[in-house]
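P.,

For your records, the input lines for the assembly:
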Amino acid sequence: MARSKSSTNTTTTSRKRKNIEDKEEPSLKKPFTQAESLFNNYKDEVECIGPDGVVNFCKDLGFDCDSIHILILAWKMGASKQGYFTKGEFLKGFESLGCYDLTTLKQQLLSLSDKLKNDSPKFSELYKFSFAFASEVDSKKSIDIQAASSMLQLILPDGPHTVNFVEFLRTQQQYKSINRDQWLCFLEFSKTVKSDLSNYDESEAWPLLIDEFVEHVKESSIAVNKEFYTEKKDDRY
Amino acid sequence: MSNMLSNITLEELWIICDTPFQDLFINLNKGLTRKSYMNIYTNIYNYCSTQNERSTVDFYPRVERLVKAKAKEIMARSENLNNDSLLFFFRNQWNDWKMSSNVLKNLLAPVNKIFSSEAKTSSSAPTSAESKIYSDALNAWRDTAFNPLKNKLSVSLLKIIENDRNGDSTNLQVLSDALECYVQLGPEKNKLEIYQSCFETSFLQETEKFYKIESQEFIEKNGVSEYMRHVYSRIEQETNRVQQYMPISTLEKLTKILNNILISNYKEQFAAKFIDLLNEDKASDLSMMYSLLNRVNHLEPLRKNFGDFIKSEGLKEIESNLKEAQEKPQVLISILLKVYNRFNTMIKDCFNNDSTFTTTMDKFFGNLVNENPASYDPKKKESTVPVVLSKFCDQILRKGPYHISDEQELEKKLQEAVCLFKYLPDKDIFMLNYQKMLSKRLVEDLSASEDAEATMINKLKTHQGFDYCTKLTRMITDMRLCKDINANFQNYLNDSNLTLPYTFNFYVLTNGSWSLTNKPSANPFKPPSEMLSSIQYFETFYKKSYQGRVLTFLYDFSRADVDSRQTKGKIYKLSTTAYQMAILLMMNSSDKASRFQILDTIGLDENTVRVPLLSLIKTGVIECAEPSYKNWNNETEFTVNTKFASKKMKVNCNISVQIGDTKTSEGAQTVSEGEVEKERFFKLQAAIVRIMKSKKTMTHNDLTVETTTQVSKWFAPKITAIKKAIEYLIEQEYIRRTSDDNPTSRKYEYIA
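Structure tokens returned:
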């Protein structure tokens, strides 16, 4: 309880301070030094917060490590690798979000994640970022199926095709990884194609992966229908 | 002369004219002497030139009255005549009448002149003045002679035609003359009016009636074949009659009726008979049926049946010889060619070289070529004919039992091969195989004739375009250049005072044009010392002559001739591969060698050395205690067969041996599916990059279509293959997708 109380306190002060900053030519130095000391709390390697530090940081912030908010934070930081924040990235993130402590940060991230839901171009940027972020390879040209599936569930949890697509990725054998083009096209696909796939046109420029996905869904739904039909038939006799 | 120009009145003139005029019409054959003709003409002339213009008007009615009276007088004689006699009488009188009218017209020429100048000044209806007299005469004839008789006449004329149709002899000239009268009597505006209303209509009706009955009876009695012949001659007869004796405008209407009654009414029956005719191979009947049904535009069922027939006949031929057709390229190819020639000839002989039939044949024959049981691979779902055809070409072009030495005969065969080439769905598979086999022929010196090779390449070039054959052309060029290179190398050696221990011949082949690579081996081949100096000399020479070029030695494809001196003094010439030569040279110093020693000396690995050893053992040049290569190890020893003997002095050691399930054959080896797939992927990429480079941006559909056309010369790409290539190029950052909110207007964009 005490803790939460204190945090509300800081929030109010931060708001005040922000107002002051807005009014009188803010000196950016102060929040920086605060962010810097925050960074020092979590860093476990030289100039870098490693996986353990990130876990602690998230916990203190009050978010799951694999939540959309942390992804947004990573995006704002321009983090290049999952599980790591370098000092430069960390400070850049605080700067661009205009925050200097965990409470303001949490507020910012919550409001940002709300805003993003209605800001398609910004969301596209985040989506684009998530590919490189999730990529384990140095070239950032592909991500393996496992990472792609987790990332999709994280970033497009309510997408009309996400559940089916992740399921498809899990069962198919042909693809070991997903490239950038396929990744970007899936967002487009989720935005434009209805959940029943009725407006899907295979003569359009969709990547083969998506063609195959659609075929897979259609086939399995036929199979389901058939089963349903035969069951019904059986009932009759 | 002037005293002759005395005034003359109409009455006086008429006294002079009356009798001769009457005679002119009634007693035409009495004739008119020159003197009296001149006399009458002069008088008329005088009358016209002296009388005032007004009085000439009185002259015409008199003439008109005279002509009418005469016509009546003549026709009075016909009262007791009927049918033919009436017709003949009418025809004769008509011919006379025309003559008489002409004479009268000429006699009255002076009057006509005045009349015509009058007509001009009074600007009355400008009737052709010259024929005023003549048309008066015709009108009199029409009103007095023709009109009362026309029905009778028409009936008689139709009777004549009916007689002609029934084969009774009849006088068609009467028909012609009478109908000429019908036309002459027609009004100036539409000369054919009387002919059409009084004769043509009932003629056409009669014709229709006649043939309706006749055709029905005939076909029932004699069957379709006879009927077709009959119709053919009927149409000819009718056409000729119209052309010779009737106004030609009738022909079109008549033809329509004949086509309708004689052909269209029976076209289903005709077409049903078509298959029988094909089966019985009745060329003349087929040709007749074609020409008849062509008249009524009813060829579609024929084409369809023709197509099916080609396919079923072809399948019959192949199935009766299935096993051989599956195994031997030349059997399948010659069956296909036989079918091709048979139906090509049929189109020429029976179907008038009709291009629509050729199209049908192309479709169905193409289908036969690629989907018969000997050529269709149900597993791969594709035709094997591209491969079979390239094997066929290889067989006839390479030295060996199938080569045709007669130039013209060979040329003919090649031409036929190109004929079938047209029907290949995937011309790239043919080309890849052809290329592979050609490189083998050239490198192993198995090509029977350089000219024939060039001929074939040129044929393919004319058919499929220059770029289709680029690699082949380059290969041939390489071979030509090799002669120069070897000669230059010899000069170089002479100039540098170098000598080679043996004769060497090098082929320098451009990388990329030839599909030749050494099989991968753990250790490289170590050429024996005997070879080494030559190779080094050549390398030095070549690098000096062509700077910056890299030489790779293809030992897998190198050949050698080795002399083997036997203890008995016999010398065998062994033709070997480079590896076999290296093994044999080793055995010069010791009679036996373990596999370890061999590998140590000549390089290679246990897999690559297996085939040379096995074939040397098979020829009997060397021996091994262990017959199965599977049990060989590094200690296995190979010894020289001291008892080696052969009937031939020249022994080929590079013979095929069995390794596992596959036989390493020296014959044609085909290109694998994977290689084809790879080649296609490159082709698609190249096409897409080319297109995008010139168009910069393009929609998915346009790019797909354009790419398909670009590669269609080689193969028909699947959409998925094109997509795969596009996606690969996106990944490689040759192109990208434009970001457009409207998904239908999204495009690809070339990244420069």
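Two observations worth noting. Residues 120-236 of chain A form a domain with the Recoverin; domain 1 fold (CATH 1.10.238.200). Chain A is about 70% helix and 5% strand.

Regards
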